Amino acid sequence: MTDYSEYVGRATSNSVVVIERGPVANFARALKSEESYFYNVKDAQDRGLRGIPALPTFPFVMEHWGLFAELQPEEKLSGNPVIEVLGPLMANGGLILHGEQAFEFERPLVSGDVLEGKGQVVECYQKESNGHVMTFVVTETVWSDFNTKEKVVTSRSNVIHRA
Amino acid sequence: MSDIIKFADAEVGSEAPVLTHMLGRTDLVIYAGASGDFNPMHTDEVVATSVGQPSVFGHGMFSMGILGTALTGWVGIENIKSFGVRFTKQTWPGEVLSTNIKVTSIDQVGNKTIVSLDCSLMNQDGQVKVQGTATAWRC
Protein backbone atom coordinates (compact mmCIF):
# COMPACT_ATOMS: atom_id res chain seq x y z
CA MET A 1 0.00 0.00 0.00
CA THR A 2 1.26 3.43 -0.93
CA ASP A 3 0.79 6.43 1.33
CA TYR A 4 -0.94 9.14 -0.70
CA SER A 5 -1.67 11.52 2.17
CA GLU A 6 0.67 14.18 0.70
CA TYR A 7 -1.85 14.68 -2.13
CA VAL A 8 -4.68 15.76 0.18
CA GLY A 9 -5.17 19.51 -0.13
CA ARG A 10 -3.46 19.76 -3.53
CA ALA A 11 -5.33 21.97 -6.02
CA THR A 12 -6.98 20.19 -8.97
CA SER A 13 -8.58 23.12 -10.77
CA ASN A 14 -8.94 26.88 -10.81
CA SER A 15 -11.31 28.06 -13.51
CA VAL A 16 -14.14 30.37 -14.52
CA VAL A 17 -17.18 29.11 -16.43
CA VAL A 18 -20.05 30.90 -18.14
CA ILE A 19 -23.49 29.27 -18.02
CA GLU A 20 -25.29 29.73 -21.34
CA ARG A 21 -28.88 29.00 -22.28
CA GLY A 22 -28.22 26.79 -25.32
CA PRO A 23 -25.96 24.21 -23.64
CA VAL A 24 -28.16 24.08 -20.54
CA ALA A 25 -31.36 23.47 -22.55
CA ASN A 26 -29.58 20.97 -24.78
CA PHE A 27 -28.37 19.10 -21.70
CA ALA A 28 -31.95 18.93 -20.37
CA ARG A 29 -33.13 17.58 -23.73
CA ALA A 30 -30.37 14.92 -23.76
CA LEU A 31 -31.56 13.80 -20.31
CA LYS A 32 -35.21 13.62 -21.43
CA SER A 33 -36.55 16.41 -19.26
CA GLU A 34 -39.91 17.77 -20.42
CA GLU A 35 -40.13 20.62 -17.90
CA SER A 36 -41.02 23.73 -19.90
CA TYR A 37 -38.77 25.96 -17.78
CA PHE A 38 -35.68 24.44 -19.43
CA TYR A 39 -36.87 25.62 -22.84
CA ASN A 40 -38.94 28.77 -22.26
CA VAL A 41 -37.37 31.59 -20.26
CA LYS A 42 -40.78 33.03 -19.37
CA ASP A 43 -41.63 29.77 -17.59
CA ALA A 44 -38.30 29.91 -15.76
CA GLN A 45 -38.96 33.52 -14.70
CA ASP A 46 -42.43 32.52 -13.46
CA ARG A 47 -40.62 30.27 -10.96
CA GLY A 48 -38.50 33.16 -9.76
CA LEU A 49 -35.39 32.14 -11.73
CA ARG A 50 -33.22 34.74 -13.46
CA GLY A 51 -32.56 32.52 -16.47
CA ILE A 52 -32.93 29.00 -17.82
CA PRO A 53 -31.83 26.65 -15.03
CA ALA A 54 -29.44 23.73 -15.37
CA LEU A 55 -30.28 20.15 -14.36
CA PRO A 56 -28.48 19.14 -11.15
CA THR A 57 -25.74 17.12 -12.88
CA PHE A 58 -24.73 19.98 -15.22
CA PRO A 59 -21.87 21.12 -12.93
CA PHE A 60 -20.08 17.89 -13.90
CA VAL A 61 -19.94 18.92 -17.57
CA MET A 62 -20.07 22.71 -17.59
CA GLU A 63 -16.35 23.22 -18.10
CA HIS A 64 -16.77 21.60 -21.52
CA TRP A 65 -19.06 24.45 -22.60
CA GLY A 66 -18.22 27.49 -20.57
CA LEU A 67 -14.45 27.65 -20.12
CA PHE A 68 -13.80 30.83 -22.12
CA ALA A 69 -10.06 31.41 -22.54
CA GLU A 70 -10.07 35.16 -21.85
CA LEU A 71 -11.80 34.69 -18.49
CA GLN A 72 -9.38 32.17 -17.03
CA PRO A 73 -7.24 33.12 -14.01
CA GLU A 74 -3.68 34.04 -14.92
CA GLU A 75 -2.32 31.96 -12.10
CA LYS A 76 -1.72 28.46 -13.48
CA LEU A 77 -1.67 25.36 -11.32
CA SER A 78 1.54 23.40 -11.19
CA GLY A 79 0.70 19.83 -12.17
CA ASN A 80 -2.48 17.82 -11.75
CA PRO A 81 -2.47 15.64 -8.63
CA VAL A 82 -5.20 13.31 -9.98
CA ILE A 83 -3.04 12.47 -13.01
CA GLU A 84 0.06 12.22 -10.81
CA VAL A 85 -1.70 9.52 -8.74
CA LEU A 86 -3.58 7.66 -11.48
CA GLY A 87 -1.10 7.97 -14.35
CA PRO A 88 1.60 5.67 -12.94
CA LEU A 89 -1.07 3.16 -11.83
CA MET A 90 -2.63 3.09 -15.31
CA ALA A 91 0.79 2.55 -16.85
CA ASN A 92 0.64 -0.88 -15.19
CA GLY A 93 -2.91 -1.56 -16.40
CA GLY A 94 -6.14 -1.71 -14.46
CA LEU A 95 -9.38 0.17 -14.71
CA ILE A 96 -10.50 3.69 -13.85
CA LEU A 97 -14.00 3.80 -12.36
CA HIS A 98 -16.22 6.72 -11.41
CA GLY A 99 -17.35 5.42 -8.05
CA GLU A 100 -19.46 8.20 -6.59
CA GLN A 101 -20.67 11.66 -7.49
CA ALA A 102 -22.46 14.23 -5.35
CA PHE A 103 -23.64 17.83 -5.59
CA GLU A 104 -24.62 20.22 -2.80
CA PHE A 105 -26.54 23.30 -3.96
CA GLU A 106 -27.01 26.74 -2.39
CA ARG A 107 -29.17 27.69 -5.38
CA PRO A 108 -29.79 26.41 -8.92
CA LEU A 109 -27.37 27.34 -11.71
CA VAL A 110 -29.03 29.57 -14.31
CA SER A 111 -28.07 30.93 -17.71
CA GLY A 112 -26.20 34.19 -17.26
CA ASP A 113 -24.22 32.90 -14.28
CA VAL A 114 -20.45 33.28 -14.27
CA LEU A 115 -18.97 30.86 -11.77
CA GLU A 116 -15.50 30.54 -10.31
CA GLY A 117 -14.40 27.03 -9.35
CA LYS A 118 -11.61 25.90 -7.10
CA GLY A 119 -10.98 22.18 -6.79
CA GLN A 120 -8.79 20.15 -4.48
CA VAL A 121 -8.06 16.59 -3.44
CA VAL A 122 -9.94 15.89 -0.20
CA GLU A 123 -9.13 12.18 0.23
CA CYS A 124 -6.56 9.89 -1.38
CA TYR A 125 -5.93 6.35 -0.15
CA GLN A 126 -5.58 2.69 -1.07
CA LYS A 127 -7.32 -0.40 0.19
CA GLU A 128 -7.58 -4.00 -0.87
CA SER A 129 -10.90 -5.42 -2.01
CA ASN A 130 -11.46 -8.95 -3.39
CA GLY A 131 -7.77 -9.31 -4.15
CA HIS A 132 -7.57 -5.99 -6.03
CA VAL A 133 -5.65 -2.94 -4.82
CA MET A 134 -8.12 -0.07 -5.08
CA THR A 135 -6.84 3.51 -5.14
CA PHE A 136 -9.41 6.20 -4.29
CA VAL A 137 -9.02 9.85 -5.26
CA VAL A 138 -11.81 12.08 -3.95
CA THR A 139 -11.90 15.63 -5.29
CA GLU A 140 -14.15 18.50 -4.32
CA THR A 141 -14.77 21.63 -6.39
CA VAL A 142 -16.48 24.65 -4.86
CA TRP A 143 -18.19 26.87 -7.44
CA SER A 144 -18.98 30.43 -6.39
CA ASP A 145 -20.67 33.33 -8.15
CA PHE A 146 -17.86 35.27 -9.81
CA ASN A 147 -19.46 38.64 -9.01
CA THR A 148 -20.89 38.16 -5.51
CA LYS A 149 -18.40 35.44 -4.39
CA GLU A 150 -21.34 33.56 -2.83
CA LYS A 151 -21.08 29.78 -2.94
CA VAL A 152 -23.42 28.18 -5.52
CA VAL A 153 -22.59 24.47 -5.71
CA THR A 154 -20.03 21.98 -4.41
CA SER A 155 -19.25 18.99 -6.62
CA ARG A 156 -17.59 15.92 -5.11
CA SER A 157 -16.22 13.05 -7.22
CA ASN A 158 -14.75 9.73 -6.18
CA VAL A 159 -12.54 8.23 -8.88
CA ILE A 160 -11.14 4.75 -8.34
CA HIS A 161 -8.28 2.86 -9.93
CA ARG A 162 -8.72 -0.91 -9.69
CA ALA A 163 -5.49 -2.80 -10.30
CA MET B 1 -50.10 1.89 -10.10
CA SER B 2 -50.84 4.38 -7.37
CA ASP B 3 -52.11 7.92 -7.92
CA ILE B 4 -49.54 10.60 -8.58
CA ILE B 5 -48.70 12.45 -5.38
CA LYS B 6 -47.57 16.07 -5.61
CA PHE B 7 -44.28 16.87 -3.85
CA ALA B 8 -46.13 19.48 -1.77
CA ASP B 9 -48.37 16.72 -0.37
CA ALA B 10 -45.71 14.00 -0.05
CA GLU B 11 -45.31 12.10 3.22
CA VAL B 12 -42.66 9.64 4.38
CA GLY B 13 -42.96 6.68 2.02
CA SER B 14 -44.44 8.71 -0.85
CA GLU B 15 -42.89 8.05 -4.25
CA ALA B 16 -42.16 10.33 -7.19
CA PRO B 17 -43.64 9.51 -10.61
CA VAL B 18 -41.44 6.88 -12.29
CA LEU B 19 -39.47 7.91 -15.38
CA THR B 20 -38.93 4.94 -17.70
CA HIS B 21 -36.62 4.98 -20.69
CA MET B 22 -35.30 2.31 -23.03
CA LEU B 23 -31.62 3.05 -23.55
CA GLY B 24 -30.62 3.37 -27.20
CA ARG B 25 -27.23 4.00 -28.81
CA THR B 26 -28.53 7.32 -30.13
CA ASP B 27 -29.25 8.45 -26.54
CA LEU B 28 -25.56 7.95 -25.76
CA VAL B 29 -24.43 9.88 -28.83
CA ILE B 30 -26.77 12.74 -27.90
CA TYR B 31 -25.52 12.70 -24.30
CA ALA B 32 -21.90 12.62 -25.47
CA GLY B 33 -22.54 15.77 -27.50
CA ALA B 34 -24.48 17.51 -24.72
CA SER B 35 -21.94 16.67 -22.01
CA GLY B 36 -18.67 16.74 -23.95
CA ASP B 37 -17.82 13.22 -22.73
CA PHE B 38 -16.63 11.56 -25.93
CA ASN B 39 -15.08 8.48 -24.34
CA PRO B 40 -15.47 5.97 -27.24
CA MET B 41 -16.66 3.26 -24.81
CA HIS B 42 -20.02 5.05 -24.93
CA THR B 43 -20.32 5.86 -28.62
CA ASP B 44 -18.00 3.73 -30.75
CA GLU B 45 -19.01 0.06 -30.97
CA VAL B 46 -15.79 -0.88 -32.83
CA VAL B 47 -13.56 0.48 -30.06
CA ALA B 48 -15.76 -0.90 -27.23
CA THR B 49 -15.87 -4.44 -28.64
CA SER B 50 -12.14 -4.37 -29.47
CA VAL B 51 -11.38 -4.13 -25.74
CA GLY B 52 -13.75 -6.95 -24.83
CA GLN B 53 -16.96 -5.09 -24.02
CA PRO B 54 -20.10 -6.70 -25.49
CA SER B 55 -21.16 -3.32 -26.93
CA VAL B 56 -21.01 0.37 -26.10
CA PHE B 57 -22.34 1.11 -22.61
CA GLY B 58 -23.96 4.12 -20.98
CA HIS B 59 -22.13 7.00 -19.34
CA GLY B 60 -22.50 6.74 -15.56
CA MET B 61 -23.45 10.40 -15.61
CA PHE B 62 -26.25 9.60 -18.10
CA SER B 63 -27.73 7.25 -15.48
CA MET B 64 -27.33 9.84 -12.72
CA GLY B 65 -28.71 12.45 -15.11
CA ILE B 66 -31.89 10.51 -15.90
CA LEU B 67 -32.40 10.06 -12.16
CA GLY B 68 -31.81 13.81 -11.79
CA THR B 69 -34.47 14.52 -14.42
CA ALA B 70 -37.03 12.50 -12.44
CA LEU B 71 -35.96 14.16 -9.18
CA THR B 72 -36.15 17.64 -10.71
CA GLY B 73 -39.53 16.96 -12.28
CA TRP B 74 -40.99 16.12 -8.88
CA VAL B 75 -39.36 18.52 -6.42
CA GLY B 76 -38.65 21.48 -8.78
CA ILE B 77 -35.17 22.60 -9.81
CA GLU B 78 -35.09 25.53 -7.34
CA ASN B 79 -35.68 23.19 -4.37
CA ILE B 80 -32.84 20.70 -4.84
CA LYS B 81 -30.36 20.97 -1.95
CA SER B 82 -28.24 17.88 -2.53
CA PHE B 83 -28.04 14.91 -4.85
CA GLY B 84 -25.44 12.14 -4.64
CA VAL B 85 -25.08 8.62 -5.98
CA ARG B 86 -22.85 5.58 -6.09
CA PHE B 87 -22.40 3.93 -9.49
CA THR B 88 -22.96 0.20 -9.16
CA LYS B 89 -23.46 -1.31 -12.65
CA GLN B 90 -22.96 -0.41 -16.29
CA THR B 91 -26.03 0.24 -18.47
CA TRP B 92 -26.45 -1.40 -21.87
CA PRO B 93 -28.38 -0.49 -25.02
CA GLY B 94 -31.78 -2.18 -25.01
CA GLU B 95 -32.19 -2.06 -21.24
CA VAL B 96 -35.34 -0.42 -19.92
CA LEU B 97 -34.24 1.93 -17.16
CA SER B 98 -36.63 3.22 -14.53
CA THR B 99 -36.27 5.67 -11.65
CA ASN B 100 -37.27 5.04 -8.04
CA ILE B 101 -37.48 8.05 -5.74
CA LYS B 102 -39.01 7.75 -2.28
CA VAL B 103 -39.34 10.08 0.71
CA THR B 104 -37.42 8.78 3.74
CA SER B 105 -37.84 11.68 6.17
CA ILE B 106 -39.30 15.16 6.46
CA ASP B 107 -37.63 17.54 8.90
CA GLN B 108 -38.10 21.10 10.04
CA VAL B 109 -34.96 23.29 9.82
CA GLY B 110 -35.83 26.67 11.30
CA ASN B 111 -38.87 27.85 9.37
CA LYS B 112 -38.11 25.62 6.38
CA THR B 113 -38.92 22.00 5.65
CA ILE B 114 -36.35 19.65 4.23
CA VAL B 115 -37.36 16.41 2.54
CA SER B 116 -34.88 13.51 2.33
CA LEU B 117 -35.20 10.98 -0.47
CA ASP B 118 -33.71 7.66 -1.51
CA CYS B 119 -33.09 7.50 -5.26
CA SER B 120 -32.12 4.69 -7.58
CA LEU B 121 -32.15 3.72 -11.23
CA MET B 122 -32.67 0.09 -12.19
CA ASN B 123 -33.21 -2.02 -15.27
CA GLN B 124 -36.20 -4.19 -16.18
CA ASP B 125 -34.80 -7.05 -14.06
CA GLY B 126 -34.42 -4.91 -10.94
CA GLN B 127 -30.62 -4.61 -11.27
CA VAL B 128 -29.59 -1.37 -9.60
CA LYS B 129 -27.42 0.89 -11.80
CA VAL B 130 -27.01 3.90 -9.54
CA GLN B 131 -28.15 4.38 -5.98
CA GLY B 132 -28.11 7.43 -3.79
CA THR B 133 -29.90 10.09 -1.84
CA ALA B 134 -31.18 13.61 -2.31
CA THR B 135 -32.55 16.40 -0.16
CA ALA B 136 -34.99 19.09 -1.24
CA TRP B 137 -36.48 22.19 0.36
CA ARG B 138 -40.24 22.47 0.65
CA CYS B 139 -42.06 25.66 1.50
Largest sheet of chain A: 5 strands, antiparallel
Q: In percent terms, what proportion of residues of chain B is strand?
A: 25-35%
Helix and strand run of chain A:
EHHHHEEEE
**Element order, helices and strands of chain B?**
EHHHEEEE
Number of helices of chain B: 3
Strand content of chain A: 35-45%
According to CATH, the homologous superfamily of chain B is Hotdog Thioesterase
Structural class call of chain A reads alpha+beta
CATH architecture of chain B: Roll
**How confident is the prediction overall: mean pLDDT of chain B?**
96
Rounded average pLDDT of chain A: 95
N/C terminus separation of chain A: 12 Å
Could you say what the CATH topology of the domain at 5-19 and 66-162 in chain A is called? Thiol Ester Dehydrase, Chain A
Helix amount of chain A: 10-25%
Termini separation of chain B comes to 28 Å
What does the radius of gyration of chain A come to? 18 Å
Strand order of the largest sheet of chain B: 1-3-4-5-2
Work out the oligomeric state of the chains in this entry: heterodimer
